[in-house]
Amino acid sequence: MSADPVALAGELLxxxxxxxxxxxxxxxxxxxxxxxxxxxxxxxxxEAGTAPVQNLFARIGxxxxxxxxxGHTDVVPPGDPxxxxxxxxAGDISDATLYGRGxxxxxxxxxxxxxASLDYLAAHGPKPKGSISFLITGDEEGIxxxxxxxxxxxxxxxxxxxxxxxxxxPSNSAAxxxxxxxxxxxxLNGTLVLTGKQGHVAYPQLADNPxxxxxxxMHALMSARLDSGTPYFDPSHLEFTSVDVANAxxxxxxxxxxxxxxxxxxxxxxxxxxxxxxxxxxxxxxxENVRWHxxxxxxxxxxxxxxxxxxTELVVGAISDVTGRKPRLSTTGGTSDARFIKDYCPVLEFxxxxxxxxxxxxxTPLADLVALTSVYRTILERYFPD
Length: 386
Ligand SMILES: [Zn+2]
Fold this sequence. Notes:
Layout: H1 5-13, H2 25-35, E1 39-45, E2 53-60, E3 66-72, E4 93-94, E5 97-99, H3 107-123, E6 131-137, H4 148-157, E7 164-167, E8 179-181, E9 183-184, E10 186-195, E11 199-200, H5 214-222, E12 237-244, E13 252-253, E14 256-265, H6 271-286, E15 291-296, E16 304-305, H7 310-323, E17 328-330, H8 338-341, E18 347-349, E19 363-365, H9 366-383
């Protein structure tokens, strides 16, 4: 198999691997990596109430340092294929641009990591100076319970220890080389519940309407200053997303009002301290007479930061040398599988440009695939010095 990222990406895009379907994508990667001398395991994880999902772990070399490329081959559904200029699973190239669901999120980057590794091994003999691994899941875009989180545990149980990881999520905002993700905010969901007393709307004195106190309490929580941010993180923020009283009639004062919210939080907090802080703001705003509580949902998304240091400098240096851009160190955006990987080794995220991810006509310039391969190739070269 040649180390051409465009050809590899095209093959991957032709696999219809909408979560949780494998679609041939992992089989293709297994084939490529076996051909290059990797040991490859394909593992299916499942648990009650979820669809089984396939995953792949591959390693070449047995010595440290151990470098890992992480990623996913599953994609979100394409929606109505008729809305696409090029069929979503055709891997068409037009105007030096590769089209298809997953082009940037993130089969393109997986193809670049494959191409860079093949090219590196071709230049440096059959084995690397340390070890190179691929940690690829088919469960990132879904509920992400049968993917990276279990694959990392599986690898650890088999004695795999990782030194550094690059995850190829689409980190750049406008041009390749503009942004690298050095951490992610955490995410926590809760429901504010106000309890009153149901009654006839014509006799409000006999009822206790929970909707009276709700707006002020919501306003207090949305404008609460949870922290003032850090050099790497924006201030944490609470945002309400839904208000529900489930009232189907016009003459009833509801007995309960519920308002759902989400908090995107930085590494000034862990979940227990954040919950306590929000409840303190609620207590202060509610006063004595309002009956309220917060129902918190379990979350596996803590905030984390990969501390700046030698590894970040190596990756930033490779990006600047290849693209001519000095990447911004960012922690913005949603969560990613980096939140699981960070418990095992330092992880940075650098991939393609995210502008068309999850959209109709998802696409990447071929030049970006070539540049990203060159960045990954340079990282490998410097990670395993002669
Ligand atoms: Zn992704």
